[in-house]
Write a structure and sequence with these properties.
PBSX family phage terminase large subunit; Rossmann fold; alpha/beta; 417 residues; viral release from host cell; Terminase_6C; Terminase_L_N; P-loop_NTPase; 2 domains; eight-stranded mixed beta sheet
Length: 417
């Protein structure tokens, strides 16, 4: 028998909030808690109620919002809640049309060109998916297009896995303060928020997700992705979540140099440290781009093979590895996978904090961009303080080594025609 669509108790509360008096609503909480599903459902309800209405679903990157919502969540919502609803797609404008002429637009806010294509229209609903990835300036600009005249009350909706308390979404929806001035909002009742967590969506989750997948996270990751908690930036931490989020990009420009940083693990047991493997590049614009995190917990031959694969994938200029513990053996293991590997040994002569500070300074200046999201690496970055600086943040160490070499003066890389 075909399963009928039944909202969870949390989704029913969310629907009441979304249709309530507040014009701006944020649903936040843990991973796989049903936030995106119920927001897409609510947008379809609005679109069907007002013929010819337009509704934008925006994220930092256009391809991400299309993959996660256009090709995944939206078909699931239609199949379960609106069976038989005919949708037509315009591949030129990247929009979906409903039978009554209403439109769903999907776009990214990471480049002016892409944003302008979406923001040339007016909308009755704007939904900011994963708003923790977005800067407040981009959101404010997009909200100027919440101006379509229909029978609907124009609304802006947001969702996210909570970032740090320094993020604008916390100040706006939880503290109800202007993110720029810090002053209390003039109309605080216009802003509402609701916590949804995966435990409330258990019936829609795969077996073992709560007990195995989420339970295996670090404490800070568990608080964010299971409990939906807003995290304090750790006192003395060199990086904050907001610092990383505001400079995230979808793609890197032409790169002058690409380096792979490696922080080899001393042992390879199940409880051993990981081998940090992070690839980064320097652009012609003078900015730096973190391209990949291939860190792993494997035997030497295994992590060396990963380094080789990343070297070939990105056509890197150099591999730099810390050899304090492994000595020449690190180079031997790497060359067993790639004989002509351009390799450089580095030895840690200063403390971790001293090595990391120049790199953190570039992040503060907005000169380092993560090309995508690297959850484990970013967790290590935002958890790294003088008090924790004696540990072994393997991914972070690999990043720092790669960035340190990239910061050195170098001639532009030669790319054969």
């Amino acid at each position: 028998m075909k399963r009928a669509f039944v909202k969870t108790a949390a989704q029913q509360r969310a629907i009441r909030l979304l249709s309530g008096p507040s014009r701006f609503v944020m649903l936040y909480g843990g991973s796989r808690s049903g936030k995106t599903f119920i927001l897409v459902y609510a947008i379809l309800v609005r679109a069907l109620r007002a013929a010819g209405s337009r509704h934008a679903i925006l994220r930092l990157h256009a391809n991400t919002v299309r993959q996660s919502i256009r090709f995944d969540t939206l078909p699931k919502v239609v199949k379960l809640a609106f069976p038989g609803l005919g949708l037509s797609e315009s591949k030129v404008d990247q929009l979906i049309r409903l039978p009554n002429g209403s439109e769903l637009w999907f776009g990214g806010l990471d480049t002016e060109e892409r944003a302008d294509k979406i923001l040339g229209k007016e909308f009755a609903t704007i939904y900011f998916n994963e708003c923790s990835e977005l800067g407040f300036e981009a959101v404010s600009t997009a909200l100027t297009r919440l101006a379509q005249r229909t029978a609907l009350k124009n609304r802006a909706w947001f969702d996210c896995n909570p970032a740090g308390k320094s993020h604008w979404s916390y100040r706006l929806f939880i503290e109800r303060r202007d993110p720029v001035s810090g002053l209390p909002l003039s109309f605080p009742d216009n802003y509402a928020s609701m916590l949804l967590n995966p435990a409330e969506n258990r019936e829609n989750l795969p077996e073992g997700y709560l007990e195995e997948t989420l339970a295996g996270l670090t404490e800070r990751q568990r608080l964010r992705f299971q409990e939906g908690a807003w995290l304090d930036d750790l006192s003395g931490a060199l990086w904050s979540t907001a610092m990383i989020e505001r400079s995230r990009v979808e793609a890197a420009p032409s790169l002058e140099r690409i380096v792979i940083g490696v922080d080899p693990a001393v042992t390879s047991g199940k409880d051993s440290d990981e081998t940090g493997i992070v690839t980064a590049g320097r652009g012609a614009d003078g900015h730096y781009y973190v391209l990949a995190d291939a860190s792993c917990r494997e035997r030497p031959a295994g992590w060396a093979a990963r380094v080789r694969d990343e070297y070939r994938r990105f056509r890197a200029d150099r591999v730099v590895a810390e050899v304090n513990n492994g000595g020449d053996l690190v180079e031997t293991v790497l060359r067993s996978q790639e004989l002509d590997l351009p390799f450089r040994q580095v030895r840690a002569m200063r403390g971790k904090i001293a090595r990391a500070e120049p790199v953190a300074a570039l992040y503060e200046q907005g000169k380092v961009h993560h090309v995508g999201c690297f959850r484990e690496l970013e967790e290590q970055m935002t958890s790294f303080t003088p008090q924790t600086g004696t540990g072994s943040p393997d991914r972070l160490d690999a990043l720092v080594w790669a960035m340190t070499v990239l910061m050195e003066p170098a001639s532009p890389r030669f790319i054969p025609a």
